[in-house]
Design a protein that fits this description.
4-stranded mixed sheet; 23 strands; elongated; binds uridine-diphosphate-2(N-acetylglucosaminyl) butyric acid
């Protein structure tokens, strides 16, 4: 099994150069794995990233009775013919936020499900009222017993109009999973439009579901009696692609990112160009190059198609090298600037006002420091900061967070000329 622990030691100050391939999307894979629970036939997922969160989701599915096997690298076979439980194992499910998606799938397939309160990264309050009130609108009895949420349908679920208080990514996917076999039509109003939600809808359509409007903020689902197994290719990871584009810009390098979907990254590429980074896209390729002065930016992390919150920390690191004062507003989560304290250890001039705005003055020369990866994206951001630090060595600890979401990040960075070692 791949090593997913330890620290990364980085000797920065080298421009990244070369070509790097993008893996399948972490978050789209979690949705696809949950969808496979809806049918007794096999589902075969292609382009699956080999990352910690996928391993953990596989454990969650196995704890329900599904078999989950790697057929070959990046191809996952899931067979949920013999589910023996409607409640995933507490230890694995509670620490993986995406595991809560099994709730909608099990409710649709078995008419009942119970799941622990989902944990996940420390990035702010993460309520699940959108999921729970949606299940209730479809006719399920929703209750709580200690740490477990329980949803039970005494009769078949009935389609309904559901107004989501917030366009929650997992909430929207969970409601689609529950609604695809409900009787009649469901409308999810104020649905999330993220590409990962579109990916889930496309896999469900491949399984025989009738869904329209995915990718917009109103999704309609016409319930069907039966779904079938399918083969489905996971969409490229836009966040990984964005990470390499930002790394190129930050180190004054030139990187070609292949196997990406540039359309999913328009908000980032627009902002990078605004900062003076050369960005081009064609087909499934993206080029990012920077050799001049970076301009400061004001950015806002927003639901799609706004700038992804999952790229916010990395853009902030880039802005430490911009000439002037930048403003970073996090508008999705209420506590996703915790990395700022770690970034200051490398010499960045970052001031936070409250928990959602950071003011960054640049450029500041970064120097190596000992820092901790606090979550998957904050960890990636600190690794990028280490690559930009021209003096000293940076050690990023708790790299397992990063390995949960990035396939071989250290190896891929090395292939671009970075000096990164796992210790
Ligand atoms: N929210 C509500 N009510 C709900 C659910 C969410 O108010 O019932 C609010 C949250 O408080 C938060 C905002 O909605 O402020 C966004 O939460 P959302 O539910 O959309 O996030 P999520 O579905 O839990 C997924 C990704 C995250 C990504 C967010 C936003 C997965 C497994 N996780 O989380 O990914 O940041 O959408 O795009 O799909 C990551 O990959 O690093 C990561 C954290």
């Amino acid at each position: 099994m791949r090593q997913r622990n330890g620290s990364l030691v980085i000797a920065g100050g080298r421009p990244l150069k070369g070509t790097v391939g993008v893996s399948g999307s972490k978050n789209a894979t979690l949705g696809a794995m949950a969808a496979a629970l809806l049918v007794p036939e096999e589902c075969v997922l292609q382009n699956v990233p080999d990352i910690g969160d996928v391993d953990q989701m596989a454990q969650v599915l196995r704890s329900l009775g599904a078999t989950v096997e790697w057929a070959s690298p990046h191809v996952l076979r899931i067979n949920a013919a013999k589910l023996h439980s409607s409640s995933p194992a507490m230890e694995t499910a509670s620490s993986l936020r995406g595991s809560f998606l099994v709730m909608g799938a099990l409710l649709g397939r078995l008419g009942e499900a119970s799941c622990p309160q989902p944990g996940g990264d420390v990035i702010g309050q993460r309520p699940i009222d959108v999921h729970l009130s949606g299940f209730a609108a479809l006719g399920a009895d929703v209750s709580r017993d200690g740490d477990q949420f329980i949803a039970r349908a005494k009769k078949p679920l009935e389609g309904a109009t559901i107004f989501a208080d917030y366009p929650s990514v997992l909430g929207t996917q969970n409601l689609m999973l529950a609604a695809v076999t409900a009787r009649g039509r469901t409308r999810i109003v104020n649905a999330a439009a993220e590409p990962e939600v579109q990916g889930s809808a496309e896999m469900l359509i491949r399984m025989g579901a009738r869904i329209t409007g995915h990718g917009s903020h109103t999704i309609e689902v016409e319930g069907v009696e039966r779904l079938r197994g399918c083969e489905y290719e996971i969409i490229p990871d836009r966040l990984e692609a964005g990470t390499y584009a930002i790394a190129a810009a930050l180190t004054g390098g030139e990187v070609e990112v292949t196997g990406a979907c540039p359309r999913h990254l328009e908000s980032l590429t627009y902002k990078l160009r605004d900062a003076g980074v050369g960005v081009e896209a064609a087909g499934d390729r993206l080029w990012a190059r920077s050799d001049g002065e970076l301009r400061p930016l004001t950015i806002q992390a927003l639901p799609y198609p706004g700038l992804a919150t999952d790229l916010q920390a990395m853009v902030a690191v880039l802005l430490t090298q911009a000439h002037g004062v930048s403003y970073v507003h996090e508008r999705v989560f209420d506590n996703r600037l915790l990395y700022a304290g770690e970034l200051r250890k490398l010499g960045a001039d970052v001031v936070t006002t409250g928990t959602t705005t950071a003011i960054i003055s640049g450029p500041t020369p970064l120097h190596g420091a000992h820092v901790q990866a606090l979550d998957v994206r904050a960890g990636a951001a600190l690794i990028l900061a280490g690559l930009a630090a021209a003096t000293g060595r940076t050690e990023v600890t708790d790299v397992y967070h990063v390995d949960r979401g990035y396939e071989r990040l250290d190896e891929k960075l090395r292939s671009l000329g970075a000096q990164v070692q796992r210790v």
